[in-house]
Every structure is written in C-alpha cells, then in structure tokens.
Amino acid sequence: MEEITSEWVYSHIYPDARRPGTVVTERLVLRESGLCRWSRFLDTNDVKGVKAQGEFWRREAVKTVRFSTKLGDPSRDFSLFGERQAVKNRAVFVWLWEVAPVLMAWLSFAFNPLSFTLYTTSGLLAIIWHAFPWDGTRYVMSEAATVTPLVWATVLAAFTFIVSIGASWWLRLGGKEVAKDDVYSSVRPHAAAISRWKWQRPANAIFFGLFGLWCIFVCIICPVLAVQGRSISCEVGGCESSPGVVDGTCGVGSCSCGAWADMHCTNAASLNPYCLATDAPLCSEDSSKASGAHGLLLFIASGSVAFLLLLFLNWGVNHLAIILAWKRGETDPSPALKPDNVPYHRINVTFDPPRGSLVFTVGADEDVGQLTRLLLPEAPPSAWAPPLASSVMEPLWPGDEEPQMLLRNPTTHQAPEDVQWD
User: Fold this and answer.
1) Among 235, 215, 28, residue whose Cα is nearest residue 123
2) Measured between alpha carbons, how far is 106 from 322 in angstroms, rounded to an integer?
3) 5, exposed or middle or buried, with CB in 10 Å at 0-12, 13-18, 19+?
4) Cα-Cα-Cα-Cα dihedral sign, residues 247, 253, 258, 261
5) What parts of the sequence cross the membrane (predicted)?
6) Is pLDDT above 70 for 333?
7) In contact, 375 and 61? CB cutoff 8 Å
8) Which of 304, 323, 319 is nearest to 204 (CA)?
C-alpha cells in the first residue's frame, strides 16, 4: 500500500559567490493542509547584512508558477536589503584582484629598460633623419646639413647607450647565471624567461655589445658632421691698402684677422680664399664644393634603421619568452572569491492581489514539474511521494501556536539570531 505523506521538504544548500566563505541554505516546506513556507539563511557573522529571509502562504493564494534552469550563482536572484553596496564592493574587489596582476604584467612590457631602449632608439633615428635639409616637400641636398638635430642626436645617443646598459642588466647579461628552477623575487625577469632557448642569452649579449659600440660611434660622428663644411668666420678689417686689395699682415698696424691669425702674423691675403661666404652643400655638381658630410650622414641614418629593426626583434623575442614563462600564482585567491557555477532551478511564484511574487531556488536534481503541481492550488497533495524525507518540526520562537521549521546551517549548526520577513 502506498504511503500517504502529509509534508514535502525541498532543501537547497550552495555557496554564495559574492560573499566568500558564506553558505546559503534554502528550505521549502509544503504541507498537505495547504500551508507553505520558504526560508533562506546565510551562514555569516556579518552583523550589518541580512542573515535570513522567509515567507509563508497558503496554496489557495498561488496564481501562477514559473521556473527556469540556470547555471551560475543562485544568490544573484536575491536582493537583500542592507547588502547591495557590500555586494557591489565585493564584485569590484574581485575584478581588481583578477585584472590588476594581469594589467600590471602588461604595463611592465611598456615600462622596462629594454622597452625604454627601443623608445630612445626610435627617437634617435627620427632626429638623425631631421638633419637632412627639408623644405616641406622634398630633401634639398644642395644645402648644408641641419646643425640642431645633429647636436640633439649626440645627446640622445649618449643617453641611449646608458639605457642599453640598464637593459643588459635587466636581461641578466652580466654576473652569475641564475638556474632556471631557482625561486627568487626580483624586478628582473626570471632565468627561465631570459634563457628559455640556448641561443637567447648569447644573442642578447652579442646584440647589446654591438649596439653599445654603435651608440658610441654616433656620439663621435655627429659633432664632426655638425662642423664639416661650415664657413669659417674671418674678418680682415684694416688689411686693405685700397678697395678690394688685401695686402696687410694680421696683427700688424690696423690689420686684424682674429686672435689666432694675429698671433701667427698671417698674411691677410692668404686668408681670403678660406673665408667662404656660405656653408658647403651636402651634394654639388662640383664635388670639390661639397662638404663631404652626405655619405656619413646617410650611413648613420641607415645604420640606425637597421639597429632599430634588430632591437625590435630582440624586444619581441625576449618578451615572448617572458609571456611563455608566466605562471599562475600558487596563492591565487580567485577560487575562494568566485566559486564554480552551480546548476539550479529558479522558481517564481505569483499570488493573487494584494500579495506580489516570491522567487526562490531549488537544486538542479529536483523535479520542477512535480514541485509546480504541488504549489498550484488544484493539485491533490496526497497523490505524490515526497521529493525528500520529511524533517522534524521544532518551535522557532517560544510561544508559537503552530510548529515551525528551525533551520540549522549544516556547516555551523547554529540558528540565526534574527529572521527578517518580507
């Protein structure tokens, strides 16, 4: 003979993903008499938040029952008074905890000695190319090289050399080699990153050795190019016996040709061919009139392009090795902050006015079709078997006329201090 049951109990226990360490217990009790009760307790010691919710009704008041199956955090279907801002703060904290390390790791790519070497080399190349005379539409090689870019190129080449030394230190090209399995804390990449391939460290050493020599070469040659082909400022005042005839001796009488020429008693007439009216052009139809700076200037510009491309390749290889050597932190708190999503059923019960609606959840293994039939007023309650074993009813508060369910969290076995009813 089939046993007739007067009570059905649905219990759903799950972790709250928005409140780490908190366990939520939902309990739905349906009686044959038509009285229904739902309760939700949070296993938390937070005195500011809501620890419990509850609702009771009679089956005759139910108007509709809707349900949907979801995968996620069941607590997201509840909005507890007093905890909304705390939940938002927790969500921001979780997001920052996960994103900040990744963001800082990627930002470190842009702010490290190797990246700064790439930036300064790019600037050096741009400045050197500005030394070629440009009229806005084309290069005018019949003019002299621009002096100001050559001066700045000298300064930037020296600074690039210093930065490249820092990049060599950052890549551990000097000193004792660190074992790949060594564990240490440093602002420099781990040995597993800068020695991922056997050829990586020797290739870095060869490149930065040649790159340092190139920076020194640019520091020396740019000042030479800045003065090459420039006109010598000389005046032979008082050295003319008649207009257009220079025949005096520097430093004698009223003839003055400058301190150096005066001290050497130079013949003023011998200075006249060397007092050029304009600077020598980079290129000229008459090669004797060209400054000769064109070849060297083009050489350092082309060489800077080549070293910039090699440096970019070196930057990409070393940072790829760093990415491949990344490991997830052993003390990553993300699992505690964001537990795995769980499958569940979301039930929405609406009542006849003036009552509103009620939302609660049950486990994914429950038969929501059977639960729906039990909640509707026309369902014969004694026709079905209980989903779970019936529970023991205890008075929740002294003096209650009807026995009510006392929910004890399976983790703490402590009843909540207070219950807030909607």
Assistant:
1) 215
2) 11
3) middle
4) positive
5) 116-132, 144-171, 205-227, 296-317
6) no
7) no
8) 319
Q: Which residues pair with 27 in a beta bridge?
A: 11, 39
Q: Give the residue-averaged pLDDT of 266-286.
A: 68
What SS3 class is residue 27?
strand
36-52 residue pLDDT tens = 999 988 887 765 556 78
Among residues 56, 61, 57, 52, the alpha carbon closest in space to that of 25 is found at 52
pLDDT per residue over 214-271, tens digit each? Answer: 999 999 988 888 877 666 556 677 888 777 777 888 888 888 887 888 888 888 887 7
Question: Which amino acid makes up residue 144?
Answer: A
Distance CA 407, CA 421 (A): 15
| Tally of CA atoms within 13 A in the half-sphere of 396 that contains its CB | 15
DSSP letter (8 states) at residue 422 = -
Give yes or no for a contact between 238 and 256, defined as CB atoms under 8 angstroms apart.
yes
Q: 175 CB contacts (<8 Å, ≥6 apart)?
A: none
Q: Helix or strand or coil: residue 43?
A: coil
b or e along 148-165 (b: 16 or more beta carbons within 10 Å of the residue's beta carbon)? ebbebbbebbebbbebbb
Give the residue extent of every domain in the chain. Answer: 7-91+339-421, 112-230+280-337, 232-275
Amino acid letter for position 154? T
pLDDT above 80: residue 34: yes
Dihedral angle computed from the Cα positions of residues 290, 293, 297 and 299, in that order, rounded to the nearest 10 degrees: 90
Cβ–Cβ contacts within 10 Å for residue 242, how many? 7
Helix (H) or strand (E) holding 227: helix 200-227
Query: Is residue 65 exposed (0-12), middle (13-18) or buried (19+ Cβ within 10 Å)?
Result: middle
